[in-house]
Amino acid sequence: DHVSEVVEGLEIGAYEFTDFRAEETPVIGSVELLVSGKELKQVSAAVGEGSLVGQAVNYTRQIGNQPGNVVTPEVLAKRALEAARKYGLKATVFDAPKLRAGGFNGILAV
């Protein structure tokens, strides 16, 4: 019942921000789940879902852990558009004039 949550936890738990480290740390090579044949289709779907959510969380963490001079607003917008394209989603990026016109002054003040 909780396969997707377990897989998501494994993905998130394995995340390490290593961009500024000189040495590599060991990673988990694989995890095995034992299931009956009648549950295989359901478990496979849950593994896929949990893995996708965990990878998305880690992608977001990777961006958030980088300094502002690396992930500028332009870089962040580009990454958002790339992710949307990759997964067939629609994304809209607002530049400063659009933010002003929309009354998003809190974002502009940062």
Name the features.
single chain, 110 residues, mainly alpha
Counting helices, strands and paired strands, the structural category is: mainly alpha
Q: Could you tell me the mean pLDDT?
A: 92
The dominant shape is: flat
Mind describing the biggest β-sheet?
Answer: none
Helix content range: 55-70%
Low-confidence regions: none
**Share in β-strands:** under 5%
How many beta-strand runs?
Answer: 0
Oligomer: single chain
The Cα radius of gyration reads 19 Å
Determine the number of helices (DSSP H or I, runs of at least 4 residues): 5
Note the gap between the termini. 43 Å
Question: What report would you give on this structure?
Answer:
Helix 1 runs parallel beside helix 2. The mean pLDDT is 92. By secondary structure, the chain is an all-alpha fold. The protein has helices at residues 3-13, 40-65, 73-86, 96-101, 105-108.
Quick rundown:
This protein has 110 residues and is mainly α.
Tell me the layout of helices and strands.
Elements: H1 3-13, H2 40-65, H3 73-86, H4 96-101, H5 105-108
